[in-house]
Amino acid sequence: MKVAEIMARDPVKLRQTDSLSKAAAVFNRHNIDSVPVTDHRQHLQGIFSKKELFQALSDGGGPEQPVQDYMTGPVPCVRDDQRAEELIDRPEEKLAVVNQANKLVGIITKTDILKAYAAKLKYVSNSLHALLESTTSAIIAIDREQKITFMNKSAASLLGVKVAQVMGRGIKEALPKSVLPDVWMTGQKQVGTSMVVNNRRLVTTHSPIVQENQIVGAVAVFQDITQYQTLIDELASERHLREVLNTVLEIAYDGIIVTDSAGHITMISDTYKRFLGVEDQDIIGKHCTEVVENTRM
What we know:
The structure is a single chain. This protein is an alpha+beta fold. 38% of the residues lie in helices and 26% in strands. It contains twelve helices and 14 strands. Strands 9-8-12-11-10 form a five-stranded antiparallel beta sheet, with helices on both faces. It has a four-stranded mixed beta sheet with strand order 1-7-6-5. Strand 13 (257-259) and strand 14 form a beta hairpin.
């Protein structure tokens, strides 16, 4: 994030030739303690504060004397194209901002920087939370005390609980067979682990959460494959039945043809193929009337 994105633009300022009386009026009007001073080309020249004003008056300075006689410098400043995080470790709480031409374009404070990054962090956090809640995968995270720190709606639905009821509780209370504690302790990622929860078949991936080279927790992502497994089982059953039927057709002495609902041949016994003098590739997929004349199939 650039300084120009955060700074306060068009700051209150004084010209070198402005009088002490004008400086006092500016301090009073804007309720500020110091102000940057520029020349007629907006180039930063110094800074003038209430301290310098009181010193000037105590030294006998007249109200019409210019502030350039009492301003201090050089002024701590930064460029508007610098990255804002570079300023965090600087000792100054407030800095003048200049452009490439050394013209004053703004003022930035550490409070401005912290507020900007807090807003950015909140945006990223909200976006991430929305993303995690919108996925159909169940997601659960724990901290180093093995307590649940995050659970999305998909995970709550899978476990048959409410998020508010399990947040802060031990993972073993909500999911006794969870391996998240093991992943946190070993730091080893586990991929493709299969488990059954509430009669749902799941494939899970468990990963440690690492922060500054320290394992601070673990996260699990569950993918419900119950429907996929059901389809796989059905396909396996169908394949088995088909193999049985093929075996029957191979040993049958009768001439047998199997068709689909539209009359297209899907299977034929070896006996019938020998009788017709054909092979599978000659007739599979053809309509039965093309192979057997006057058929009633």
